[in-house]
Design goal:
The complex is a heterodimer of chains A (188) and B (406). Chain A is built from nine helices and no strands. With 188 residues, chain A is mainly alpha-helical. Chain A has one domain. The longest helix of chain A has 25 residues. Chain B is mainly alpha-helical and 406 residues long. Chain B folds into two domains: 316 residues, no CATH class; 80 residues, no CATH class. In chain B, helix 18 links the parallel strand 1 and strand 2. In chain B, helix 2 packs across helix 3 and helix 9 runs antiparallel to helix 10. The chains are: A mainly alpha (188), B mainly alpha (406). Chains A and B meet through helix 1, helix 2 and helix 7 of A and helix 2, helix 9, helix 11, helix 14 and helix 19 of B.
């Protein structure tokens, strides 16, 4: 067998191996806030608040960061809720952490509104966090939040195909809908 | 000769009438994403999901100019592709072997329960296979330029059949060197065209989504599946009993079919090692290749082969009577809008069809929390034990039965 043929066979096997991981379904991505929420709720569900506190301590840095962005009480209140074994409050503050992520992504979307690609990624992520928060919202809040996030997505415009069908970004509209989102998220 | 063509035309039209007597119904979230992609293409918004299926989307957008209903358009496109597959197999086998083998391959493919799966799932499999087989036919009749572009359409309709293309390319290099240049040039035209479509629409977002999807999501969703099926069960089941005849093909190798033997072996290894047994449709390329091999080896026993396949195929098909997919039947039955739905099947379909809050069961711990604090109903493909449930059967071989329970 010539070297040429050997290389071809090697390439074939390599390409096949790469494609082992190229098929999948839809799911939200790996995010520290989602992973931490799942871990804490795992122990809360089995009333193992000691382990829930351990997970909290390990992920405290992320919650501290989110507190600075969205609600300064997030870290302290979540800690108190775990220490007091208050299941409802733990769930409430974990939902606030999801709200903080939505806030963070919308903020990123606004800062990058002139860079369509970056802004769109930010808003797509905000939408994924919204879907996780959704079951804990009232019907009215769910609908209002959905409309407001869609408003932000629309406000970043669309570069179109070679400029055909392009829609310019509307920063004022973005801010208007962002304020609506924040007013709902702050009320959680 | 004229009568064969008449027979093929009439039976294909009859099969088309049978398939289009079904209403378009989403098989899973992927089919919903493809329909949404026909309306508005954006891979990052799962419209459709990665890798974007640009050939299917372009064909779909073209048909949708006239149909103006993306769900129906997707059904017309994917079902028509499936309906035409046995005809392409006929012409392919006729060219390689003879008309008798071609007719046997046609009949056992047309009556296959797997063809109904391909016809009704509204996924990219049917279009990918139709164009792949059409490309093979063009290759057989030395229409190399057409073959090159058609292979590009096939790959960008269903990129996860990549292994078939890599193997086919190696075959060309070893056994049909004179065709490589023309095929490659026109294949590359196709690549530029379809990748161009993706990057004009998505820009570098496509790379971001590709990275996120491949690295992050493969394992996440895979662990969320609630199925106990394995490939052993899928392969060794009632409907596949006639395929025991493949053993005979090993002893009677037809060297003009060496490409098809290679495709069969490598694709078999591929699904055993790398495909999710939860989706029986991954076996379909293997079934079609088997039909070609069996018909080519055993066409002189056609009066035994055809009735044998017909009995098993028709008995399997007769087990199914539903018109709509289980997830759409469940959506029709759900009356209480206040109850949360817990599921890891058809999440986005339910979010589109139902006003209820839908909880993604993949997030198992937050799901457990919500389940204990709210009124919920659960959808699963696992039969619940010690609970009252309602059963929703699939429309065809490979569509799971769903169970709905409190």
């Amino acid at each position: 067998m010539t070297l040429y043929k050997k290389i071809l066979i090697f390439l074939f096997i390599t390409l096949s191996s790469i494609n082992l991981y190229a098929y999948s379904y839809a799911a939200a991505g790996k995010e520290p806030t989602i992973d931490a929420r799942e871990s804490i709720l795992k122990f809360v569900n089995s009333s193992d608040f000691g382990e829930a506190a351990t997970v909290f301590e390990k992920t405290k840095k992320n919650y501290t960061y989110l507190s600075g962005l969205h609600d300064k009480n997030l870290v302290s209140s979540l800690k108190v809720a775990i220490d007091n074994k208050n299941v409802d409050q733990i769930n409430k503050w974990l939902n606030v952490s999801l709200a903080a992520e939505i806030n963070r992504r919308l903020d990123g979307g606004l800062k990058n509104i002139k860079v369509f690609n970056v802004s769109k990624v930010m808003l797509a992520k905000a939408n994924k966090f919204f879907k996780l928060l959704e079951p804990s919202l009232t019907k009215e809040k769910k609908e209002d939040l959905s409309i407001a996030i869609k408003g932000c997505i629309k406000a970043i415009g669309n570069p179109g195909l070679f400029g055909v069908g392009a829609k310019p970004a509307n920063k004022d509209n973005f801010i208007k809908y962002q304020q609506k989102v924040l007013s709902i998220l702050k009320s959680l | 000769m004229r009568y064969e063509k008449l027979f093929i035309s009439i039976t294909t039209i009859c099969y088309a009438f049978y398939i289009f007597s079904y209403p378009p119904s989403f098989y899973n979230d992927d089919s919903l994403f493809l329909a949404q992609g026909i309306d508005f293409f954006s891979v990052i918004d799962f419209s459709p999901h990665f890798p974007g299926y640009p050939a299917l989307i372009i064909f779909g957008k073209t048909i949708n100019i006239f149909v103006e209903d993306s769900k129906l358009t997707l059904f017309i496109l994917t079902a028509s592709s499936a309906i035409l597959i046995p005809t392409v197999i006929y012409f392919l086998v006729k060219k390689i072997v003879n008309y008798e083998a071609a007719l046997v391959a046609y009949i056992i493919s047309l009556t296959s329960p797997y063809l109904i799966n391909l016809s009704l799932t509204m996924l990219s499999d049917s279009m990918g296979l139709f164009f792949f087989l059409l490309g093979l036919y063009c290759l057989q009749v030395n229409e190399d330029k057409k073959a090159g572009f058609i292979f590009a359409i096939a790959l960008f309709s269903r990129p996860s059949y990549l292994i078939l293309f890599v193997l086919g390319f190696i075959y060309l290099l070893f056994y049909k060197k004179e065709s490589v240049k023309n095929i490659l040039i026109f294949f590359c035209f196709g690549i530029v065209f379809f990748l161009g479509f993706i990057f004009i629409n998505e820009g570098f977002l496509y790379i971001i989504e590709a990275k996120r999807f491949i690295i992050g999501h493969f394992n996440l969703w895979g662990t969320g599946q609630n199925s106990e099926i394995n490939w052993f069960e899928n392969i060794f089941q009632f409907s596949n009993i006639p395929y025991a005849l493949l053993i005979y093909c090993i002893f009677k190798i037809n060297y003009s079919l060496k490409l098809y033997y290679a495709l069969f072996i490598f694709y078999l290894l591929w699904i055993l090692l790398a495909q999710n047994p939860d989706n029986i449709r991954h076996i379909i390329p293997l079934i079609l290749l088997s039909n070609i091999l069996i018909a080519s080896a055993l066409y002189s026993y056609k009066y035994i082969i055809i009735p044998l396949f017909l009995i098993f195929n028709l008995l399997t098909i007769s087990n199914f009577s539903q018109n709509y997919s289980p997830i759409e039947n469940i959506a029709k039955d759900l009356k209480n809008e206040d109850k949360m739905i817990i599921t890891n099947r058809g999440i986005e379909i339910l979010r589109v069809l139902q006003p209820n809050t839908v909880i993604d069961k993949y997030y198992s711990h937050s799901t457990n929390y919500l389940q204990t604090h709210n009124q919920t109903i659960t959808i699963s493909t696992l039969k619940p034990k010690n609970k009252k449930y309602k059963e929703y059967r699939g429309r065809f071989l490979g569509e799971h039965t769903y169970y709905l329970y409190q």
